[in-house]
Amino acid sequence: MSPVLAIIATTSADLPNAQELSSQLNLPCLGVASPSEINEVPQVLACGEQLQLCATGRKAPGPVSVDFVGGALAHRRKYGGGKAQPVAKAVGLRPGFYPRVLDATAGLGRDAFVLATLGCEVKMLERNPVVRLLLKDGLRRLQEAATADPELAAIAGLLSLADDIAPAADWLAQQAEESWPVVYLDPMFPPRGKSAKVKKEMVAFHHLVGEDLDADDLLEPALRACYYRTVVKRPKVAPYLADKKPMLSFEGKSGRFDIYTKHGVPG
Ligand SMILES: C[S@@+](CC[C@H](N)C(=O)[O-])C[C@H]1O[C@@H](n2cnc3c(N)ncnc32)[C@H](O)[C@@H]1O
User: Fold this and answer.
1) What integer pLDDT is reported at residue 83 of this predicted model?
2) Which of 8, 61, 142, 232 fits 200 for a cystine, CB–CB 3.0-4.6 Å?
């Protein structure tokens, strides 16, 4: 079967990095190129100043990368509504209570980052090796920017990625019972209908990650590992995870938050 992903370098100086990733991921390296020139594969991982997942071909949408310093996340950090944001309400954040969060399906780390900007310590789990590399690259650039910016330094100190690449259900099963205040789940869900259309630049990400068909298996281990809340982010049209009715649900801008509460009282 031919690969659906290959590695390219954006400049000749990036070629050694691209070659290293190619052997690490066991994917072909197509040398120094631009994604628009590639037609052997539908998407590439481009090594340059940032690591980017790019659809290939002349009409390809923009790249996907993890940028915790600039772009949309910087805008959200500065003007995004702070503690009034639905995700903050979902994890139960309130003055004096900033729960530690295990984000078991980190993806591009956007929700994790937002929670860290609000003062929560967040550990991310991600099983897809390419998405993990994008996250690591984003964290590396966050650490670099943090050296000159105390606000970013505080956020960087709260955000981490687990070394383990084990699927989250196994990872959660290894945690002591009720050892996390909050477990946060946001597995992929197949887009449905016009309203749920995937943003153009996210097509490559969806192509890469697929549909997380085992998502239901996450709920029980998450409930076991948390003592305060398990939060499940879902598209508005999606059924409950594992068909289990939450204690509480509310709609955010981009989806629904289903909340499974436990007996633990925040300290
Ligand atoms: C919809 S994305 C999460 C988006 C994320 N909340 C954000 O703000 O960027 C879902 C991610 O969860 C990961 N994932 C799904 N099931 C997983 C599992 N069982 N263990 C680890 N990662 C998982 C997928 O690989 C994918 O990257």
Assistant:
1) 85
2) 61
Closest CA to 130 of 198, 73, 204: 204
C-alpha distances out from residue 37 to 32, 245, 259, Å: 11, 49, 46
Element (H, E) at 203: helix 203-209
- Would you say 4 and 41 are in contact if contact means Cβ atoms under 8 Å apart? yes
Residues 162, 83 within the same domain: yes
Report if residue 62 sits inside a domain.
no
- Ligand 1 site residues, Cβ closer than 6 angstroms: 105, 107-111, 125-128, 131, 167-169, 186-188, 209, 212, 218
pLDDT at 194: 54
Q: Find the 125 Cα to ligand 1 centroid distance in Å.
A: 8
Tokens of 76: 């959200």
Please provide the average confidence, as pLDDT, over all residues in the chain: 91
- Based on C-alpha coordinates, what's the Rg of the chain? 19
Q: What CATH number does residue 182 fall under?
A: 3.40.50.150
Residue 172 Cα to ligand 1 midpoint, Å, equals 14
ipTM over cut 0.95: yes
Q: pLDDT, tens digit, for every residue of 209-258?
A: 888 889 999 999 999 999 999 999 999 889 999 999 999 999 877 789 99
Bridge partner residues of 55 (DSSP) = 43
Q: What amino acid occupies position 267?
A: G
33 and 138 in a single domain? The answer is no
Is residue 36 domain-shared with residue 147, that is, in the same domain? no
Amino acid, res. 124: M
Question: Which pLDDT tens digit goes with each residue over 10-37?
Answer: 999 999 999 999 999 999 999 999 999 9
Q: Residue 105 C-alpha to ligand 1 middle, in angstroms?
A: 3
Least-confidence region, from 95-109, 112-126, 195-209: 195-209
